[in-house]
Structures are given as structure tokens and as C-alpha cells.
Write a structure and sequence with these properties.
The complex is a heterodimer of chains A (148) and B (91).
Chain A (H helix, E strand, L loop, with lengths): L5 E7 L1 H13 L6 E7 L2 E8 L9 E2 L2 H14 L2 E9 L8 H5 L7 E6 L6 E8 L2 E9 L2 E2 L6
Parallel strand pairs in A: 1-8, 5-6
Antiparallel strand pairs in A: 2-3, 2-5, 6-7, 7-8, 8-9
Chain B lengths: L2 E4 L13 E4 L4 H11 L1 H7 L10 E5 L2 E2 L15 E6 L2 E2 L1
Parallel strand pairs in B: 1-5
Antiparallel strand pairs in B: 1-2, 3-4, 3-5
The chains are: A alpha+beta (148), B alpha+beta (91).
């Protein structure tokens, strides 16, 4: 398993965690993507955004759907907490492309890996090319990071 | 012609932290030239050396993706709102 220095955590509830995995599975082997938003680090909004690339190795959020989600966050006073996408055949660690294109330093990048039978969700800050990892907690318990 | 431009967090280092700026121009290209006249960094973040919008920057005119309008030559009118969002993409 590829690792990065761990700094901080991100807390999800079970319903959100399960919804991320269900979304990832819904279009496998293609990658899916979306946003989590809320207040004070507590997620209360989940936006599934179509992957305009519909690819097994690349994602790009549909521009209009992405804008609608961002506007909804503004209108509801929510803040963007996390940007998630799936890796259907590789581990839950940012790829070189993920790092190169990471343009939201204030968001946590969540990656849902379907590589193994048990889905793995890991979280990262990607700031100016530097990756640090956050421990993912689900209902207060640390989520397993997977075997590889 | 006053055009309101919504600036995302990641580009606010080019606007002294402002989330909304106002600019002038009858096309998107002119608007970005106007904004770039005050801050070259913002222009470089939006427009490539070929004069086209960067691939991984989404620009919207009144919530429409300008790629489906006229790209950087999209005409603007007084009172329009331009929104900028870095694309969310990866592998």
C-alpha cells in the first residue's frame, strides 16, 4: 500500500460511506465522482456528479452539474468538504494525474477503491503537488485502509 | 459594460482575496484582457499562450458553459455574470 504522511482526519457517517461505495459500484468499471458538503466538517450533502469522461482511468466532472452543485452549496450556506472519485482497478491513493489536476486545496480528496473485494476509502489533502493523508473515520471508528 | 466575475478560492490570490470582481469587455477575451491588465497572474491562470481557455478551467456565462457558446470569443452584455471554476478531474 502506498502511504503518505498522516495529518488529521475526516469523519463520515455510515450512510455517507455506504453511499460512496454504492455510487462507485454503480458505474464500475468506469470511474465515478462527486462532492460532499456540510458545515463544521460534518457532511450533510452528497452530490453525485456525472463523469464526463466516462473512463476506467480518468474522470472529469460534468461542468454544468458541477456548477449547479457549487451554487447549491452557496445557496444553502454549505461548504465543500470533500471531492471523491473511484479507482476501479487500482489502490485508493492519488495517481500522478490526480495530483497534477488537484485544484481545490481546501477540499479533502477521497478515493474509493474497488480493487479488492472489500472497498477501501482513503482521504488526502493535495496541496501544490504535496500529498498528505487523513485518517478516515466512519461513525467514530477508523476505517480500514486496505491491505495494499 | 460592467461584467461581474466570480472568482474561486484557488484564484483569489490574484484578486487580493476578493471572490467577486468587475471587469469590462464585449467578449470573454476582452474581459480577461481587462482583468489581466490589473493582474497578469489571473490571465495566465485562465488563458494559455495560444489565446484559448485552459483545458482544465471551466468558464460559465450566466451558468452556461462557454465551450458551448463561443469559447473565449463569447460575446458579453452589460450585467452578465461570468463564473470561473477549476475543473475537477483526475485519474
Amino acid at each position: 500500500m502506498t502511504r503518505a504522511e498522516i495529518q488529521g482526519r475526516i469523519d463520515l457517517d455510515r450512510q455517507t460511506f455506504d453511499a460512496l461505495v454504492a455510487h462507485a459500484r454503480s458505474d464500475a468499471p468506469y470511474e465515478v465522482c462527486g462532492f460532499l458538503a456540510g458545515a463544521d466538517g460534518q457532511v450533510n450533502r452528497h452530490y453525485q456528479i456525472p463523469n464526463a469522461a466516462r473512463s476506467m482511468t480518468f474522470y472529469t466532472m460534468d461542468p454544468k452539474a458541477m456548477l449547479r452543485a457549487m451554487n447549491d452549496m452557496d445557496d444553502s450556506g454549505s461548504e465543500l468538504i470533500a471531492i471523491y472519485h473511484s479507482h476501479t482497478h487500482t489502490e485508493a491513493f492519488p495517481s500522478a494525474t490526480d495530483v497534477e489536476l488537484a485544484a481545490y486545496p481546501d477540499a479533502v480528496y477521497l478515493i474509493v477503491s474497488l480493487q479488492d473485494d472489500t472497498p477501501v476509502v482513503r482521504g488526502f489533502d493535495i496541496v501544490e503537488g504535496k500529498i498528505t493523508e487523513r485518517s478516515v473515520f466512519v461513525d467514530g471508528a477508523q476505517a480500514p485502509g486496505g491491505n495494499r | 459594460m460592467a461584467i461581474e466575475v466570480r472568482i474561486p478560492t484557488v484564484l483569489r490570490k490574484h484578486t487580493d482575496g476578493e471572490g467577486k470582481v468587475s471587469g469590462e469587455g464585449s467578449t470573454l477575451a476582452e474581459l480577461f484582457d481587462d482583468l489581466g491588465g490589473r493582474n497578469q497572474g489571473l490571465h495566465q491562470a485562465l488563458v494559455g499562450s495560444d489565446g484559448q481557455l485552459h483545458r482544465f478551467i471551466n468558464v460559465y456565462l450566466n451558468d452556461e458553459d462557454v465551450r458551448f457558446l463561443g469559447g473565449i470569443q463569447t460575446p458579453l452584455q452589460d450585467g452578465d455574470t461570468v463564473s470561473i471554476l477549476p475543473a475537477v478531474a483526475g485519474g
